[in-house]
User: What shape does this take?
Amino acid sequence: MKPFEQDDRIPLVALGDAVFPTSMKGTISGLSRRLVKLLKIIEYEGLLVTVPVTEYMTSKTCSNCSGNNTQKIQIDGVPLFGVLHCLNQSCNTLWRRDVNASRNMHNISWNIINSNQVPVMFRR
Assistant: This one.
């Protein structure tokens, strides 16, 4: 039995533009290159879909309300870089920065697939 035979859903892999480390010459490292190559082979076989996603503003924009009014949490004057607080009155959500960014990258990839464009708030 093939994977996904009973289910029409296909996994979506969003490849962020800053995920893969590069050398000083701009080449992708060996392990990252192999991972991308393997993902592309699996995509060619129809088992998943990869979408390149720009990571611009993904960790700073609230994925709950799409507001750009977040700030780092501070405890005793020391900022916690991994935690954000959305300051919009209607949202007021606390986010782990990586979770927030991954939710935004998921939304960006769906927009790219469905409308072939990046949402305005994530464009440079």
Observations:
- Residues 97-115 form the longest helix (19 residues).
- Residues 6 and 47 are 13 Å apart (CA to CA).
- The first strand starts at residue 12 and ends at 16.
